[in-house]
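BUG-404 | component: ligand-complex export | severity: low

The export step for magnesium ion jobs runs without errors, but we want the raw record kept on the ticket for reference. Input record follows.
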Amino acid sequence: MTAPLPRYVREVLQTLRDKGFEAFLVGGCVRDLLRNKRPHDWDVATSALPEQTLALFPRTVPTGIRHGTVTVLGRTGQTEVTTFRREGAYADGRRPEEVIFLKNLEEDLGRRDFTINAMAMDETGRVTDPFGGRTDLRRGIIRCVGDPNERFREDALRMLRAVRFSAQLGFETEPETRFAILRCASLAAGLSAERVRDELSRILYSPRPERAEDAVTYGLLDAHLVSRPKDLLKELSRLAVLRKTGDERWAAFCAVLARHGAISDPGAFLRGLRLESGQIRACARGAFLGKELEGIPDPPGWKLLLFREGEAPVLCAAATAEVLKGPGYRRALRRVLRSGEAYRPEMLEIDGQALMQLGYPEGKELGEELRRLLEHVIGHPEDNRREFLINMAEGDRRNPSPKP
Ligand code: ATP
Ligand code: MG
C-alpha cells in the first residue's frame, strides 16, 4: 500500500465523487506514490467540467480554465483539478491548438506522455494502469504511450521530458522511444526557449546532471549549440556535487560546453535560453573566471575576486573550476566566506562618515581611500579595527599616495 493522502486531497476526491463525478489522482503524484516518494504536487482528473468544479469548492483559482484546470485551495495545500481531456490538433509540434473535454478516464490517460505518467489512482489506492506503467516503473523504463514517433511529432517537448525523467529517476529510455527521439530531434528547434530552459534546468538540478549529455548528443539542443560534442559524461557527472538550485550548475555546464566547442559565448547561450539577466551575468562571468583560475586561490586571492566581481560570479567560478580542474575550490571559498573577513567596503570597521570627519571630501577621493583600506585589510584581516583604520586613513590624508 502507498503513503496516505493528505486530508485536503482526499476531500477533493470525495467531494467530486459524492456529487456523482469521477475523480482520480493522475500523473506525477501517482508515479511518486507508487515509488514511495512524497509527491510535491497533486493532480486530480475528473469528469466534472471546470465550472462544475468551481461551483463545488469554496476556495478556487481558475488557473487554466480554458484547458480545464481549476486549483482547489485546501487548508494546508492545493490540488489541481483538471477535466478529463485530450488535445485537439497540434499545429507544429509545440502546443495543442485546442482541448476537448472527455467523459472517461482512459482516453485522458492515453494523451499522456510516458507509461509511468499515465496511471490513475483513487483514494482507496486502486490503480488504473492501461499502458503497463507499473511494470515500467518497476523496471526503470521511460516508454511513450502509443507510437513514439507520433507522440514526439505532436509535442517535441516530450523528448526533453524523456531525458529529464531519466535524469530525475535514473531510468533508461526504452529503445523504440530512443530511436524515435533520434528521428524527431530536429523538431526540438521549434520549441520555445523557455520550455527548453525549464526542462534543461530540471536535468541539471537532478541527481544525474550528466544525462544532459543525452540532450546534447540526441540533438535536442542543436538550435542553441554551434556543434554537438561527445564525451561530456565525465565532466558533467561532476556537476552532481554542486548545489541543486541557482547558478552553479548552469555556470559549470556552460564551461564544459565551451571547453568542447559546443558554444562560443556562454552569455549568448544563456540569453538564448531566456535565463534571467542576473543569472546570465553570474554564470557567464563565473564560467570565464573558473576557467582562468590557476590553482586554488589563497584567502586574499578569493577576497580580491569577491571584491572585484561580487559573490555570485565567484561562487560560479569556484563551481566551474571544481568541475573543470578538480576538488577543493568551493571548500576554500566557503572557508573565506564563513571567516567573516572583509572583502567589501561595507565590511570595514570604518565607514565614509568617519572618513569625512577626518577631512575626506565626499566623492571620488573618499571612495578611493575606502578601497585602499579594504585592499590593506584583505591582506591583513587582523587590521580591520576602527582605531587602526582611522590612523591609517589619517596617514594617507597627510601623505597622499601619488596618483597612478
Ligand atoms: P513532476 O514531478 O516534475 O511535476 P509530473 O509527471 O507531474 O512531474 P508535470 O509536467 O507536472 O510532470 O505534468 C503532469 C502530468 O501531465 C504528467 O505526469 C503527464 O501525465 C502529463 N503531461 C505533462 N506534460 C505533458 C506533455 N508534454 N505531453 C503529454 N503529457 C504531459
Ligand atoms: Mg507535476
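Assignee comment: Attached the raw record above. The mean pLDDT is 95.
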